[in-house]
Design goal:
alpha/beta, eight-stranded parallel beta barrel, two-stranded parallel ribbon, 16 helices, EC 3.2.1.86
Length: 473
């Protein structure tokens, strides 16, 4: 058998993309609740347009999402039917502390997640919990400017200690920040940053990054103190960069782009700022405000490295090559050797194997693929059934790729959680029509639908994959 017997198969979601119930049970407002569908979404996400309350002009998909807040037992039962060994999810910070730093935690929020974890344990499903999945309390943004402020370190550590203590024995696998490198590309989403006239954007982004990295290291140490059985990881938006041609300038750009991407994980997995980052700070005039013990704190490194992988990226050393771009938040060039999804994400299964090798060579720590999947426009029949052979084919190829990374290349891989195991609102666009799941949810891009759950063809396929530990594809 290619994969170890204890390989963790499962699926992944985020609270803001599935839960809904945004102001129910005492929950407060989070940055991600305020991202509307439509033309303003990008400006708000990038921190260029301040938007800290709902209005009547926009539709906010996170308010209801797929209403897992009221459907979680039904959904977990379906995950169990597929045979999940692990379910990656996130805790909503504002469900625990509505304002981010309240004097006491919200008991209704703690009770809600306890019920979820106990339900998962009932089916022997291991929770893998992200503490902050694009999640910054709006109150902390209004008062302190989000992660630009050192005050968020203390608030985040207290939040983490509260949930780790409350759920000791129920949760053993933790991630500190989801796709932490997205802070560079989408600063409001990643850090609650809103830029004002005269702000030095890069200075603020990397100052916020420093605060998150310190917070992550403090929580990594805390996790082991709360429960020695805890395993804590970091998480990046993965996907290595290919040079557009064999020109030395293109290869140099690929190295530079990879470094920008891996900067956060270099610190979290190695315990110090790399020299290339220090030199970049010098060139850019970035002066990080640090406290005396910060560099010592950073030495507390993660137990494993997790990442999302949807596609590789292609870059050039020449500006004129960027006329055609593709992908999500990352600037890239269309790779002529690869096919693309309906949203322009390029399909590259071998790129997953390449990324696994690059990460394992770089860090020598166990790896975990915590997001991978195909966003597509599913067309259900009258009964709601979707024959999603295209999704099965995409996932089959990527599973074969990571099996090769384990069996041939010797990569230490803990598990695989496919993204959006149940249809959810897409982080990039807020659309429901960009579907990833094995389970179809009856809801459209305008928020209309019955929310009925229906198994797709991929549901039974993935069930066989898990039962055979990846041998039956």
């Amino acid at each position: 058998m290619t994969l170890p017997e204890n390989f963790l198969w499962g699926g992944a979601t985020a609270a803001n993309q599935v839960e809904g119930g945004v102001l129910e049970g005492g929950r407060g407002l989070s940055n991600i609740d305020l991202l509307p569908v439509g033309s303003d979404r990008a400006a708000i996400a990038s921190g260029q347009l301040e938007h800290l309350q709902w209005d009547e002009k926009h539709y906010y998909p996170a308010r209801e999402a797929i209403d897992m807040y009221h459907h979680y037992k039904e959904d977990i039962k379906l995950f169990a039917e597929m045979g999940f060994k692990v379910y990656r999810m996130s805790i909503s910070w504002t469900r625990i502390f509505p304002n981010g730093d309240d004097a006491v935690p919200n008991q209704a929020g703690l009770d809600f997640y306890r019920e979820i974890f106990e339900e998962l344990r009932k089916y022997n499903i291991e929770p893998l919990v992200t503490l902050a999945h694009f999640d910054v309390p709006v109150s902390l943004i209004k008062r302190y400017g989000g992660w630009r402020s050192r005050r968020l370190v203390e608030a985040y550590v207290r939040y983490a200690e509260t949930v780790m203590t409350a759920f000791k024995g129920l949760v053993r696998y933790w991630l500190t920040f989801n796709e932490i490198n997205i802070l560079i590309h989408s600063p409001f989403v990643g850090g609650g940053l809103i830029f004002k006239e005269g702000d030095s954007k890069k200075q603020l982004i990397y100052q916020a990054a420093h605060h998150q990295l310190v917070a992550s290291s403090l929580v990594t140490k805390l996790a082991h103190a709360v429960d020695p059985d805890n395993k804590i990881g970091c998480m990046l938006a993965g996907g290595m960069h290919y040079p557009y041609a064999c020109r030395p300038e293109d290869y140099k750009q690929a190295i530079d782009s990879d470094r920008e991407n891996y900067f956060f994980i270099d610190v979290q997995a190695r315990g110090y700022y790399p020299n290339y980052a220090k030199k970049m700070f010098e060139r850019e005039g970035i002066a990080l405000a640090m406290e005396d013990d910060d560099l010592e704190h950073l030495k507390e490194t993660v137990d494993f490295v997790s990442f999302s992988y949807y596609s590789s990226r292609t870059v050039s050393g020449f500006e004129e090559d960027y006329e055609t771009t593709t992908g999500n938040l990352f600037r890239s060039i269309k790779n002529p050797h690869l096919q693309s999804t309906e949203w322009g994400w390029q399909i590259d299964p071998l790129g997953l194997r390449n990324a696994l090798n690059q990460l394992y060579d770089r860090y020598q720590k166990p790896l975990f693929i915590v997001e991978n999947g195909l966003g597509a426009k599913d067309k259900p029949d009258r009964e709601g059934y979707v024959a999603d052979d295209y999704r099965i084919d995409y996932m089959r190829q990527h599973i074969l790729a990571f099996k090769d990374a384990v069996a041939i290349d010797g990569v230490d891989l803990l598990g695989y959680t496919s993204w959006g195991c149940i249809d959810l609102i897409a982080a990039s666009t807020g659309q429901m029509s960009k579907r990833y799941g094995f389970i179809y949810v009856d809801k459209d891009d305008e928020g209309k639908g019955s929310l009925k759950r229906t198994k797709k063809k991929s549901f039974d396929w993935y069930k066989k994959v898990i039962a055979s530990n990846g041998e039956e594809l």
